[in-house]
Specification:
This protein is 29% helix and 23% strand. By secondary structure, the protein is α/β, with parallel strands linked by helices.
Amino acid sequence: MKPKMTDEKSKFQLLSFNENPNVGVCCKANDDIAFLQKGLTKKIKRKIVDALDVKLVELNIADASIIGSLLAINSNGAVVTDFADIDSLNKIKGQGFDVCVIKDKFNAAGNDILVNDKGALVHPDIKKDAIKEIEEVLGVPAVRGTIGSLNTVGMAAVVTNKGLLCHPKVSDEEKILLEKVFDVGVMIGTVNHGVPLIGSGLVANTNGAIIGNLTTGIEMGRIEEALGFLE
C-alpha cells in the first residue's frame, strides 16, 4: 500500500528541525504531550501538533536541545538525565509527570530506555537500583536487553501502544523479548534513507508520527504498517 501523502493536516509529517532530519533526537512524545527543542518555526510546531495531536512543550535540558536523547516518557511518568537543571525538571513536572532523575553512568534516558504503557526495555548495563526507580516512575516492568546487539535501545527502536519498529538487525530472541515486554507486534525498518537507528529519525504515538524528511516512500509505508496506521 502507498503511504499517506504528507500535507498540513496529515497524521504523518516529513520534517526537519533547522535542516536536521534527526527529529527523534530533539523531540519526545506520548499520546498527550510532546517535549520539543526550543527555537523552531511556528509552521514546524503546527505540523507536529497536527501529526501527533498533542500539547507542545518547548524545552531545553541544561541548555541542550537533544530532548529525545535525554528524556524517556510514557503516560505515567518521565525519566530524565541527572544533569537536568531545576527549571527543566519543574517544567516536566508541571505537565503532570512524576519524574525520576536517573543517577547512573548510562544516564541518557532517551537513548537508553524504550518504553510504552505496557513495559520498558533498558540498557543492559543500567544498575538494579536505577531500574527499580525507572519501574516506579513509569509504572511498568522494566527489563534489560539489546536490539540488534545495540545497548542504546531507545535509539534502536520506536514503540507506541499500537506497534514497534526497530533496527533491521534485531535477532529472533530480541524480537521475542520485545513482543513480550511491549505487548505489540514488532517489525523492522529504517528511516532517513537507510538509517537503522529508528529512534533518531522518528517520533510517534498512537495518533500519528513525525519523520525525518530524508525518509523514503518505502520506509514510510513500513512505518505506517509497523505502528498500526494502515487500514
